[in-house]
Specification:
By secondary structure, the protein is an alpha+beta fold. Helices cover 47% and strands 28% of the residues. 12% of the residues are buried. The C terminus is likely disordered.
């Protein structure tokens, strides 16, 4: 009986020790946001949802990401860029997150890559679609103009070649009649003109092939560049301005200070 009591006591001690260890254990957590051009760093504040009056973490960093240790629980964070005096110029609203296990940078990058592979791969094959989603309208317009110019040029070469092929001077029946019914100089002129038009026709055909090859190379280059570019799954967070400077979401790659009044918190994907 005493042996059974000792076993219960040992198990109870182990359970209490494990509970205390679980409460004190800290997990690695990683967050990342869009870079703000012209800033002097960032300030991040983290608090528990159940105790919003007390900050759990308060960090100043020079890069647009932070990996930190934190106990399990439900938290909120907000971010501000620092002005030239090292002071926060405008804060984002509080955004919640839940910690129950380690979530380091390597895990976040793996999750983003998997999400991209599953949901965004097909978009690579549509020229200008990803730039439009990233609000890179200038880049998208240039892509449309380039492929549009290639299409117009290719069609012009095709039309010119067809016009030569349909010319009456290339009609075998007409040439036969000309040889039989016209003087020799006229027949020679018609055959010479036919040879010239044949060369011109071949030139248009070669131009079409060249434009087609250029279009295929341009398409392949566009896909390759998109794979190496940054892609974002963005969460817009409204902020209340606290000074002259406010946030400009800009593109998904970078931000800058102009009076708009919001920031973007986003995940960034990179391919090598």
């Amino acid at each position: 009986m005493r042996s059974f009591g000792k076993q219960i006591l040992i198990l109870l001690c182990i359970f209490m020790s494990y509970s205390a260890y679980s409460e004190d254990k800290k997990y690695t957590y990683y967050i990342e946001w869009n870079e703000v051009k012209g800033n002097n760093g960032y300030k991040i504040e983290i608090r528990k949802t159940s105790a919003p009056e007390t900050l759990t973490n308060e960090e100043k960093v020079s890069t647009n990401s932070l990996e930190f240790l934190i106990p399990a629980g439900k938290y909120e964070f907000r971010i501000s860029a620092l002005n030239r005096f090292g002071k926060p110029s405008s804060w984002s609203q509080w955004s919640s997150f839940f910690v129950e296990h380690d979530r380091p940078k390597s895990m976040v990058e793996a999750e983003k890559k998997q999400t991209f592979d599953e949901a965004s791969t097909w978009k690579l094959w549509v020229p200008a679609l990803l730039p439009i989603e990233r609000k890179e309208y200038t880049k998208a317009s240039l892509i449309f103009l380039w492929f549009g110019a290639l299409a117009v040029a290719g069609n012009a070469e095709r039309t010119a070649g067809n016009s030569i092929a349909q010319s009456s001077t290339n009609d075998p029946t007409l040439l036969t009649l000309a040889v039989l019914t016209t003087p020799l100089p006229v027949s020679l002129y018609l055959f010479q003109k036919r040879d010239e038009e044949k060369k011109e026709y071949n030139t248009h055909q070669n131009n079409q092939v060249g434009i087609g090859v250029l279009a295929l190379l341009s398409y392949g280059l566009n896909v390759w560049l998109e794979k190496r570019s940054f892609h974002s799954a963005t969460v817009l967070i409204e902020s209340k301005p606290e000074g002259f400077f406010k946030w400009n979401p800009g593109t998904l790659q970078s931000n800058s200070f102009v009076p708009l009044g919001r920031i973007e918190i986003s995940f960034r994907k990179e391919f090598y």
